[in-house]
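Dear colleague,

Thank you for sharing your sequence with our group. We've completed the structure prediction you requested, and as agreed, I am returning the results in plain text so they can be pasted directly into your records. Please verify that the sequence below matches your submission; if there's any discrepancy, let me know and we will rerun it promptly.
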Amino acid sequence: MDTQNSKAMYRDISAYKAGNTGTDYVHHFDSGLPGPHLLISSLVHGNEFCGMHAVTHLLDRGVRPARGKLTLLFANVEAYESFDESKPFASRQLVHNLNRIWSDEYLQGESDSPEIRRMRELAPFVDAADHVLDIHSTSLDVPPFWVYPDAQRNSALAEAIDVCGLHLIMPKGLGSGTPLIQFGRFGEAASTAGAAVVIECGQHFKPSSAAVAIAAATKFLTHFGLIEASEAGDAEPQPSVRRRFELVETHVVQTPEFRFARPVVGFEVFGKDELVATDGDTQIVAPFDGCTVIMPTREPIVGREAMYLARERV
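Please find the predicted structure tokens below.
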């Protein structure tokens, strides 16, 4: 587990608080010329530092759109600022998972938490965007990969700006809440909606995750013509081999006794009916051959995701 770089990856971002939108930690730039409105979000989870590095990279270099509009935001800053080097994973969230509450239930309901209040602040900016890149990282050390709903507009974008070659496609959504990339019209199948994708950049505290995030962000901007390719620097090349996985089942931890049948980090393959995990008296077995475990939990917590089970698309 790579946590030794957590302190080095963390930085004071208070200088970015004021922004220019009236909402803390949200920056918006309008070229005044026709073009798409792109949004890049970071720190949806407070311990996922790579997106913060990508957004500060763009802000520190004074990147401005040559056409269209650009919104850059730091989402769960309150959780980020709770970072403690001795327990670096604890700053993921304060109460709610900010990447599971982008629905009318929370937007218009009576529930309250720091994350719900922040979601309500950020919702108008996400709603106004034409295309969204949401930057994340993983608790366990696996290769970077894309995550997005199963719509042609999303796969086309991820393939056009690909920096990793692994894709997790969600035919029926996440199965454990509504993520930012499925907020409002982004969660609809209509082709008139814009593209919205997540890039999981690698383990939270590895410096390489920041490099992947910066590469993805700059390729996102160059793809839509908001910046010139020369401004992108040494972005990662497109991979020569692309692998696609389809999310089939999402399992949420039900009991404190949840255990994997064997050690997993991510992308391990199980045969049909092979035991994957136990959760109290419940046995979770692979429903088909070639069943791939993606994003297994590092520390089982009741009510949070245990893992995704996926099938590779041939």
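Summary note from our side: Helices lie at 6-9, 50-60, 77-80, 104-107, 114-128, 152-160, 207-223.

Kind regards,
the structure core
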